[in-house]
Design a protein that fits this description.
Layout (H helix, E strand, L loop, with lengths): L2 E8 L4 E10 L2 E11 L6 H19 L3 E5 L7 H20 L3 E5 L1 H9 L6 H12 L8 H18 L14 H8 L6
Parallel strand pairs: 1-4, 4-5
Antiparallel strand pairs: 1-2, 2-3
Helix pairs in contact: 1-2, 3-5, 4-5
Length: 187
């Protein structure tokens, strides 16, 4: 089996979450995850440079095959949206400079992919990720957890799978459906 490395990024100008997954067949393994904080007082252009450098360092450390990044969502504050879009663009540019393919995912799609509910709470996403990745603990930062979720969503999208948390087939919804459809994931 060929190993595939996916870098997931939750962009931000104050905090950027990242998660690196190794995929071998159906096995997902979390290699590294974290949240990089940028000084609040820094000029916006300095933050963009830091985002580019941080993303490049992660890429050089893990040599990912693909970048999955959370798309910006529409909010009330236009200035915040513009800054977030710039942060996302800089992270994408770092990947493109290394010839890494890039795919964007809307936050609702990520949540839908992981939990079966596009409006799921961050805690629900985290709980499903621990089950999917078969780990006991995720990083404390929700930015890191969001980045891991984006990477897992990308894996599911590439393979045509879902977490199994909800199936529309009537064969069981929610956790009971997940357990029935994934007996090998229950410890």
């Amino acid at each position: 089996m060929v190993e595939r490395i996916i870098l997931g990024i939750d962009p931000g100008t104050t905090v950027m979450g990242f998660g690196v997954l190794s995929v071998e067949g159906a096995t997902l393994r979390l290699l590294e995850a974290g949240a990089i904080r940028f000084p609040a007082g820094d000029d916006h252009t300095l933050k963009l440079r830091a985002i580019f450098r941080s993303t490049t360092e992660i890429i050089e450390r893990h040599l990912p095959d693909e970048l999955a990044i959370e798309a910006q969502f529409f909010g009330k504050n236009v200035q915040s949206m513009l800054k977030l879009g710039r942060a996302q663009g800089v992270a994408i540019a770092a990947a493109l400079q290394k010839d890494i393919s890039v795919v964007e995912y809307a936050p609702k799609r990520v949540k839908q992919s992981i939990t079966g509910n596009g409006n799921a709470a961050k805690e629900q996403v985290a709980a499903m990720l621990t089950s999917i990745l078969r780990i006991d603990l995720l990083p404390a930062s929700t930015d890191a957890t969001d980045a891991i979720a984006v990477a897992v969503c990308h894996h599911f999208a590439a393979t045509g799978k879902t977490s199994g948390a909800r199936s529309g087939t009537g064969k069981g919804k929610g956790w009971s459906g997940f357990i029935r459809n994934n007996p090998d994931r229950i410890v």
